[in-house]
Amino acid sequence: MHDHRGGGGHGAEHRHEAEHHHETEHHHGGEVSQTQLLTAALESLLVEKGLLSSDTIDQLVERYEKDIGPMIGARVVARAWTDPAYKQRLLSDSASALAELGIHMDNLVVVENTPAVHNAVVCTLCSCYPWAVLGLPPTWYKEPAYRSRMVIEPRAVLREFGLELDGTVEVRVWDSSAEQRYLVLPERPAGTEGMTEAELATLVSRDSMIGVARVAAPARAR
Amino acid sequence: MNQAGRPSIDNAAASPRIDAEGPGAPPRRNGELVFQAPWEGRAFGLAVALGEEGLFAWEAFRTRLIAAIAASDRRPEGERRAYYESWLGALQRLLVDRGILTAAEIEDRMRQFATGQRDIVNPGAP
């Protein structure tokens, strides 16, 4: 479940006949894969045609690598934990509740974990994911094993993530689409009563907002 | 999908910045690299940037991505494509389908990079 297939190597999915020669070529002494060549070719042609600039791509990649990550979702969760009225707004009208925190996303449904209900999110078709609040999806989220098995045997998959659920807990699996994305509001761990909203946000992991983990109590509370 | 068929992420530009470091900094990537190799980031950025520019509706890209991933899933275990290879293939197909680029010019440009006639500047940059 957690293993990755690693990066490059196989060339792009829709190769045309003439591009069908295989794998790597040598370029200035280093190995360059077909995928690298194709990426470079597309970028260079698109820039040449004035359709975008390399700076735009630089900024976008930077934004996703450095600026946007699960911390935005974590902030939302921490606010919901500390402000019951906010939590109600978040669950009933997420778009306006998110907008209160300066996050503009109108297709997010927030689902709440309780002692009786555990929610988890998957995208069976591709990799729909609430990027704006969680950043880019982890590798395993995009793997066929997770995408297919999570809907069929969620308890077994969750167990592989180290999350053992009591048999009485109802498991709800939400299949994301382009129109509708999901964020799990995890349960607030015990022992966090005295913590501030900002401190709580540091506890909230990405995996807990996908629903494959619980939020761990802070070390000092254990 | 939100207005104008754009990826929902472009809204994220409006998200406020919060602490990146120090005790107030929430967890980021749980230790996992966002991109396994630089070209993956470029491939990601290309599609999202073109979507944001309105060159195509995000759904047009997404349907091709779903098809590419499904094709990969049908392969035997060891021969499946890495996620961003499917992503890149979907982008290539969309650009060719829409007549934005031709298969021949892509092929030609790849050859120029392969033979060193052109230097790959970005994928591979630190």
TrEMBL record, chain B:
<dbReference type="InterPro" id="IPR008990">
    <property type="entry name" value="Elect_transpt_acc-like_dom_sf"/>
</dbReference>
<feature type="region of interest" description="Disordered">
    <location>
        <begin position="1"/>
        <end position="31"/>
    </location>
</feature>
<dbReference type="Pfam" id="PF21006">
    <property type="entry name" value="NHase_beta_N"/>
</dbReference>
<dbReference type="InterPro" id="IPR049054">
    <property type="entry name" value="CN_hydtase_beta-like_N"/>
</dbReference>
<dbReference type="InterPro" id="IPR042262">
    <property type="entry name" value="CN_hydtase_beta_C"/>
</dbReference>
<dbReference type="InterPro" id="IPR023808">
    <property type="entry name" value="Nitrile_Hydratase_acc_put"/>
</dbReference>
<protein>
    <submittedName>
        <fullName>Nitrile hydratase accessory protein</fullName>
    </submittedName>
</protein>
<feature type="domain" description="Nitrile hydratase beta subunit-like N-terminal">
    <location>
        <begin position="30"/>
        <end position="115"/>
    </location>
</feature>
